[in-house]
Amino acid sequence: MREEHEEEREVLQSIYEGDSNFSMINETTFQYKYGDEGEIRSFLVEISWGADYPDVAPSINLDLFYNKHIVSPVKEKILSGLKEQAEINLGMSMTFTLFEWLKEAKEELMEEQPLEAPVSRIVEINADVSQMTLNEDQGEGKKDKKEQLTKAQKRRMWDRQNAAGERARGYNWVDIIKHLSQTGGSKNDG
């Protein structure tokens, strides 16, 4: 761990202390959330330092589950802007600078992001749900439930079979003997 990394990490922790949008994932990875939770224009940026940081630009990641609603052109615009800023600041600590630059440029970068989820997608989802409800009401959507066995029941079944899944020879002989004794027959009657 380079001394520059330790210093910058301490500075970031002191600056963003109490800021719920900032999180330190590990000693070299930091995230900052822009916008309010649940907003269509909110997103999360992750910055990871490599061994040669700050002489080499940090790794910038927007491919996070939180960002699934952000359209690709907007993600590319944000990434290119952050990479450009990283190139300008090579050789000095830049994580704070990148986070703050993005705060200022957020509105401009998010112009292409729709203000709400596409209506066609909402209609598709509602149609699927209503179709499923209709099918269930008509009995078409119901599937026969498989019998659920406990672990002990499964173990007993497995113990009764050989490796090929066949039962051992003579597994039902007791039943045959019971049957013969009830009918009064014997082996020598034949």
Written account of the structure:
- This protein has a 4-stranded antiparallel sheet with strand order 1-2-3-4, with helices on one face.
- It is built from 6 helices and 4 strands, in the order H-E-E-E-E-H-H-H-H-H.
- It is α+β, with helices and mostly antiparallel strands and 190 residues long.
- The protein has helices at 3-15, 72-88, 95-109, 119-138, 151-159, 173-183, and strands at 22-26, 29-34, 43-48, 59-61.
Descriptive labels:
45% helix; alpha+beta; 4 strands; 190 residues; single chain; 6 helices
Please state the overall shape, judged from the principal axes of the Cα atoms.
elongated
What is Rg?
A: 33 Å
Give the tally of β-strands.
4
Tell me the distance between the termini. Answer: 90 Å
Helix content: 40-55%
Provide the β-strand percentage band. 5-15%
Structural class: alpha+beta
- In DSSP terms, counting alpha (H) and pi (I) runs of 4 or more, how many helices? 6
The stretches of 5 or more residues where confidence is low (pLDDT under 50) are: 119-123
As laid out across the biggest beta sheet, the strand order is 1-2-3-4
The biggest sheet amounts to: 4 strands, antiparallel
Mean pLDDT reading: 79
Element string (H = helix, E = strand): HEEEEHHHHH
